Amino acid sequence: MNLFQQAVFYTTVNHLRDLPPESTAEIAFAGRSNAGKSSAINTLANRTRLAFVSKTPGRTQHLNYFSLGQNRFMVDLPGYGYAKVPGAVKDHWRELLAQYLAERPQLKGLILIMDSRHPMTELDSQMLAWFLPTGKPVHCLLTKSDKLNRSDSMSVLRQVKAELEALSPNYSAQLFSSPKRVGMDEVGEVVGRWLGIAADDGHKRAPVKGE
After folding, report:
1. If residue 66 lies in a helix (H) or strand (E), which one and from where to where?
2. pLDDT in tens, 146-185
3. Cα end-to-end distance, the chain, whole Å
4. Alpha carbon 112 to chain centroid, angstroms
5. Coil vs helix vs strand at 181
6. What angle do CA 49, 53, 59 make, to 5 degrees?
7. How far apart are CA 41 and CA 57, in angstroms?
8. Torsion over CA: 100, 181, 170, 7 (sign)
């Protein structure tokens, strides 16, 4: 069974002091608002509303933890680059996100969501460059690949891979489509390696906080 299909909501964090101390390993999902992050998470988990999908991008405002079992977690991070919120709130998001990504020892890697039609935006490049000093891996999901024909999608993938390889050997990319369910096995294998578990190892239901 796909390890993501065992995901259940665990907790929401708005301050670093509230990060789950019981966590042993985490993978985080980040991306520019409207790049399809919530849809990708829902598709991987085979759910419709595990991660909230809004017509207004930028609605993820905290660190949302989903248990994958055995004290391992998937973390949905606030989207960047769009949300129309007060400056003080945006500053809080930025500080929370920066400190979490730079200082969380349990974080094993970052899944970066990019729209395949508009990859490697300035904000995406800034995130990749900023995360580089951690030495941790990044795997980019080029979402909405079903919007491109085969030739164009492969061209985009080659271009992005070349740019990532120039930054770090720990950076990789793949095509992904939520409606067509393209690329699910590949990202599952990547995350399984990061968490030290096989992608099909998930027969035990993940615990919900308080159980």
Report:
1. strand 63-69
2. 999 999 999 999 999 999 999 999 999 999 999 999 999 9
3. 23
4. 5
5. coil
6. 125
7. 15
8. positive
Please write the tens of the pLDDT for every residue from 12-38: 998 899 999 999 999 999 998 889 998
Give the helix, strand, coil percentages of the chain, each rounded to 5: 35, 25, 40
CA distances from 130 to 43, 160, 170 (A): 28, 17, 14
State the pTM of this model: 0.86
Residue 84 pLDDT more than 70? no
* Section 90-98 average pLDDT: 73
Residue 141 main-chain phi, psi, to 5 deg: -100, 115
CB atoms closer than 10 angstroms to residue 144: 24
Q: Show the tokens assigned to 135.
A: 């030495």
Distance of CA 116 to the CA centre of its chain: 15
